[in-house]
Design a protein that fits this description.
- By secondary structure, the protein is mostly beta strands.
- It has one domain: Acid Proteases (Cathepsin D, subunit A, domain 1, Beta Barrel), CATH 2.40.70.
- 4% of the residues lie in helices and 48% in strands.
- The protein is built from 1 helix and 8 strands; from the N terminus they run E-E-H-E-E-E-E-E-E.
- The strands form 3 sheets. A 4-stranded mixed sheet has the order 2-5-4-3, with no helix packed on it. A two-stranded parallel sheet has the order 1-6. A two-stranded antiparallel ribbon has the order 7-8.
- Strand 7 (89-94) and strand 8 (99-104) form a beta hairpin.
- The longest helix has 4 residues, at 23-26.
- It is globular, with a radius of gyration of 14 Å.
- It starts with 7 loop residues before the first strand and ends with a strand.
């Protein structure tokens, strides 16, 4: 199986991880084949997200996570949110150095 690296920003204020729709092709998935849901983003608008259960690797820990993909993610980068990810780690945000560290529980 081919491994793909997808770079994302971490946001502790976000529930679901949401990636740009183009990322679904990199992972070999179909965008519309899974559960569609509307989620509210930071400016109060709703975007359409397609949720997929995918295998992820964070801090050398491989596990399944529910990740959303959206054509409407208008911020220009991918977001890692709390659900399916944060509960598996202790997370250190070093704001001055702009570093986020994930420590497996």
């Amino acid at each position: 199986m081919e491994i793909s690296s997808i770079f994302s920003s971490v946001d502790s204020g976000v529930g679901y991880s949401v990636l740009q729709a183009e990322m679904v092709e990199i992972l070999g998935l179909k965008l519309e084949c899974c559960k569609r849901e509307g989620i509210t983003v930071g400016d109060g608008t709703q975007i359409e997200v397609y949720k997929h259960d995918v295998k992820v690797d964070v801090a050398n820990q491989e596990f399944g996570a529910t990740i959303g993909f959206s054509r409407q993610l208008g911020i220009g980068f991918n977001i890692i949110g709390r659900l399916s990810i944060f509960e598996k780690f202790k997370i250190c945000f070093d704001e001055p150095e702009q570093i986020v560290e994930f420590f497996p529980k």
